[in-house]
Structure formats: C-alpha cells, structure tokens
Amino acid sequence: MDHLLILLLIGFGVGTLGTLIGAGGGFIVVPILIITHPELSPDIITAISMAIVAANAISGSFAYARSGRIDFKAGIIFALFTIPGSVLGVYTTAYIPKLAFHIVFGILLIVLAIFLFVSKRRIVVAGHKMPEVKNRIRRHVLTDKGGTTYTYTYNQYYGIMISILVGYLSPLLGIGGGIIHVPALVNWLNFPVYVATATSHFILAVMATVSVITHIIEGNYKDPYVLRMVLGIGAGAVAGAQLGAYLSHKIKGNIIIRALALCLALVGVRILFGDLL
Q1: Which of 13, 28, 29 is nearest to 238 (CA)?
Q2: What pLDDT, in 10s, does the model give residues 68-88?
Q3: How many Å apart are CA 182 and CA 201, to the nearest integer?
Q4: Distance of CA 248 to CAs 18, 21, 89, Å?
Q5: Model confidence pLDDT, tens digit, residues 160-170
Q6: Which residues 6+ apart lie within 8 Å of 75 measured at CB?
C-alpha cells in the first residue's frame, strides 16, 4: 500500500466516494489503515484520516459552492459548534486501547448502516409542500446553479446538539463526521439529500481543519512515514473530490444514501469480526 501510486489511487477513490456522499472519506481511510497497518496506534490512524478528510472536504466544498448547494447559514453555525468537541476528541484518542477502538468503530458503522436502511428518507424540492411540525425553528429556500429549488424547515437547536456530538466523535474515531451528519441532516433535520451532502462537506472542512491543527500541535505528523501517507492519499483525495461533487447531482439521493449504508455495513463487519475472531 505504501507505493506512491497506490496511495494516490486510494486517495482518489476516497475523495470521490467521500465527496459523493458528503462523508469526507474518513470511514474509508480508517478501516484501510486498520487492516493494512495494524501496528499503527489509534491516535496516528485518526491523525492520518483527519488530514485526508480535511483535504477532501476543502476541495469538495469549493466544488459544491460552485453548484450552489451549500446552506452556508446553517453550515457556519453547525461548524462552529463542532470545534470544541473536535479539539477534545483529538486529545482523547491517545488514551483509547487499540482493540477497544476497533470494536467501537465496527459497531458504530454497523448501527449507522442499519439505521440508514430502515429509516424513511425524503428529498424536498420545489413544488413539494412540507408538513407543519412544531418546534421547527428555521425555514430555508435554496436554489442551486442548475435552477432546482429546495424548500425545507429544520430545528436549529437539534442541529447544534448533533454538531457538538459529531465534533467530538469525528476526530475520536477519525471518521470525519459525515457518516453521522448526513443521516442526521436528512432524517432528523429534513434537509434535502443533495443539500445535506454539500452542507455536511462544508462543515467537515472547518471541523477537520481544526482537528488537523490540533494533531500538528500534538506532533502526530512528525514521522516521515506518516507524513508521506498523508501527502500521497491527500493529493489523490483532492482530485477525487472534484469528481465526486460532479457526480453527486447525477445520482439519485436515495441511491447515495443506500450506497453509504452498504459501505458502512461491509466495513463494519470486516473490522468487528476481524478483531473478535
């Protein structure tokens, strides 16, 4: 895996899929590192993953901004509330036993996959009336560059609470948070899938950058071997993110969510049972 071409190809795949589903790609990088580099400690694995997530999310956010699908008003607020947890999560990784890290990560992926398969998903666009629901604080209308209008209503306070939790769990597990944020935005806050993936990517760009700065302060990128992996996979992820953003509006929202669920389930089973057997 350590050949530069292989690192670039892995990064390109991570960037494409991670941006397509708004998950940042950390849920792909972490299991790859767990399986191919079992000698790495959880804090180094999450440091590498968060650097890739940051590169992917920043690149993808520029592409999504050009498409006009990022809800910046919600995204900025939610991103700010991920920052305290993202710093705390980085410091916590140094105290997690490796086996416990693998087991928790595997269970989390499987639970999320099941949730995505059984939950109801809605894509709200122009012409679709939304039911009146109590305690929904914000109503937003967004028209993308393609002329599609999305109308949705969400509870800002629920979004803030979710963001605080995501901010802590993301650097703790190195997953970037999109695999939690996208389902939450779609199923709990009623964001349209396409807006959720784009907005989640913007939130990830902010949160992951803060996590990377914290990892730098902690010295987790000093090893040349680790830095080479970050640069190789990161360069591929930047290019792949552009393709993922381009493909996102060409694939149905439900297909994106189901693809995410399938990936989570397969990787979760592999990690969980690979450590328990």
Answers
A1: 13
A2: 999 999 999 999 999 998 888
A3: 9
A4: 11, 8, 30
A5: 998 998 888 88
A6: 199, 202, 203
HEC secondary structure over the chain: CCCHHHHHHHHHHHHHHHHHCCCCCHHHHHHHHHHHCCCCCHHHHHHHHHHHHHHHHHHHHHHHHHHCCCCHHHHHHHHHHHHHHHHHHHHHHCCCCHHHHHHHHHHHHHHHHHHHHHCCCCCCCCCCCCCCCCCCCEEEEEECCCCCEEEEEECHHHHHHHHHHHHHHHHHHCCCCHHHHHHHHHHHCCCCHHHHHHHHHHHHHHHHHHHHHHHHHHCCCCCHHHHHHHHHHHHHHHHHHHHHHHHHCCCCHHHHHHHHHHHHHHHHHHHHHHHHC
Q: Do residues 275 and 117 touch, judged by C-beta distance below 8 A?
A: no
Q: What CA–CA distances, in Å, run from 137 to 74, 84, 152, 252?
A: 12, 24, 11, 28
Q: Which amino acid is residue 221, in one-letter code?
A: Y
Angle (nearest 5°) at CA 94 between 209 and 7: 55
Which residues is 150 bridged to in the sheet?
A: 142
Tens of pLDDT, residue by residue over 139-193, are 888 988 888 899 888 888 888 998 998 888 888 777 767 777 887 888 888 898 8
Q: Give pTM, 2 decimals.
A: 0.76
